[in-house]
Amino acid sequence: MENQLQDIAYLIQFRDHFNSSVSKAPIAWHLDHMLKVINKINTILGNSDPTVYENRFNFWRTISFTFRYIPRGKGKSPASVLPPNEIKTESILSQLEEARTNLSNFESLDQNANFMHPVFGQLNKSQSKCFLKIHTKHHLKIIRDILGKE
């Protein structure tokens, strides 16, 4: 994920770019959202009770994780990871540093640290890491499309 964080850092300079044919939100929204998701999930995993994790089959998780893909416009973000109306560059930079710290501590989490995803169900540490990579890739692709780059 370090490469994805480097991409996020680079893309901050394009924060105000917007293309309504690609997304209803400007690049700053996607940057802020990605970082909120990374940091929120890390916090939840760190505070979770590993003894309550139960490995259960989830069809949509299997499909998304197998193809490393989240379809556009199908998911609805929880309020806790929605960006504010005014997104400050300083806030993005602060969240980026927090994400770097969180990800450097990620490996020390219990393997059964967990969080409940609204579509994919309960995810343990390795599944959460997979989700974070897929989710970040999803939003980085949207940003590249806003910028007109492949």
Given the C-alpha coordinates, what overall shape results?
globular
Q: How are strands sequenced across the largest beta sheet?
A: 1-2
Beta-strand residue fraction:
under 5%
End-to-end CA span: 19 Å
- Helix share, percent: 40-55%
What is the H-and-E element order? Answer: HHHHEEH
Secondary structure class reads mainly alpha
What can you see in these coordinates?
It contains 5 helices and 2 strands. The chain has one domain: dinb family like domain (Four Helix Bundle (Hemerythrin (Met), subunit A), Up-down Bundle), CATH 1.20.120. The two termini are 19 Å apart. It has a two-stranded antiparallel sheet. It is mainly α. A hairpin with a 3-residue loop joins strand 1 and strand 2 (121-123). Helix 2 runs antiparallel to helix 5 (125-147).
